[in-house]
Amino acid sequence: MEEEGTLGHTSCNRPVQGHRLPFVIAASGAGTIIEWYDFYLYGVLAAFFSTQFFPKGNDTAALLASLATFGAGFAIRPFGAAFFGRLGDLTGRKFTFLLTIMIMGFSTAVVGVLPTYSQIGILAPLILVTLRLAQGLALGGEYGGAAIYVAEHSTAAQRGRNTSWIQTTATFGLLLALAVVGLTRLNMSSDDFNNFGWRIPFLLSIILVGIALLIRVRLQEPPLSTQLKAAGKASTRPWRDSFGNPENRRLIILALLGATAGQAVVWYQGQFQALFFLGTILGVKFTDVYLIVGAALVLGMPFFVVFGRLSDMIGRKPVIIAGFLMAAVTYFPIYQAMTTRAHPQGTFSAAAGKYLLNGAVAAAQPEILPLIFLVWIQVVYVTMVYGPIAAFLVEFFPARIRYTSLSIPYHLGNGWFGGFLPLISASLLAATGNIYAGLAYPIIVAGISVIIGSVLIKESGKTKIWDEVGGHPDDASTVAATG
Hints:
The chain is mainly alpha-helical. It has helices spanning about 15-45, 45-50, 60-75, 75-90, 95-110, 115-120, 125-150, 160-185, 190-195, 200-205, 205-215, 225-230, 240-245, 245-280, 285-300, 300-315, 315-340, 370-385, 390-395, 400-420, 420-430, 440-455, and strands at about 345-350, 355.
């Protein structure tokens, strides 16, 4: 029997490894990209949605209500993680993430045909919140399945690199949402976009989900999961085994406070909040904002794989902790430099939450290249903390309850600590009138994760996840992955 991380020596293994593992990564990642695209469309259009689905008359209140609705999808994610995590541990990885992508696609498509507040009144925001909750439930089950699926097809020596491709999907989904919304807005008048054009990116999801389902239906269960069930070692009570066991409960809390909470605030600050800060607060026009953030995302995305691979070499923990620390120390000077380079016009109005010139919004005069660089730095922090996190979480929990146990801290961190960052930041801004007040939140949370992660979390990079089924007889990537 070979050690995990070694290659099989049969001649048939080499071509299978060359073809099947890339397919596993592509099939898992394609669906996850589309789920993130669906989920983040609302975030890209959050300021716009405040005029479509909420009462007019108080712009600040409408924006906060819109951000709260955005946050509702995040709030429900841990419950989706608990439900679909249990389902994934009981029935398998494949069935669960086929189901979640169908729920996400349906919910997104309905947003594309939903009547506005002016058409059906209070029912509009109520239905919108319901759809956001359905999206959050679906996403709560999607990520864990995709991350585990790839990790359980990977060797220990390449798990960080292979799962880092899944980590690119959230950023790629945001980039796709920016591109689709931007192209739609550029190819029609402002009135047409306000009347019907905003629905097009949501309806496009129907096609994308159909493509993802055609790809994913070819997948089979991961070999580790299959052997676990065959050996009778799979959990029949995932919730009780995850939360009722004191040691595993401790692992969930440590993973949340020492890893995923910090990872979440760095992710949302570096990508979403940078977008909101430039466009809504500083008054940079949307074409420039999409160009700045989009370019930074494209330039930053390769670093997911760079840091995932680095975590295979030096460990998950030092890479992730370094990202937390660098972000916490540099956020204030970065955002001060962003304000300087954006050249907002007029003076900041605490009541309006944006810069005004003679009582009206005037477009900022941004320096594009310096702003791309400043956002890119934040995206690199994102890649440091997010690139290795899937491998870390898979290795941190036992296989028999991995789907449930992994999903809970991930979605508590990203759903609550990260998902409410835009709302918390906007509330701190409204309360203090200081455009940098919202930075206190991600800095504090990242700082807490630095302390807890450094002191209490052990390195997971050398974990042999096949030990639960008596060791790995061959390279995971050589196991047939398609039907």
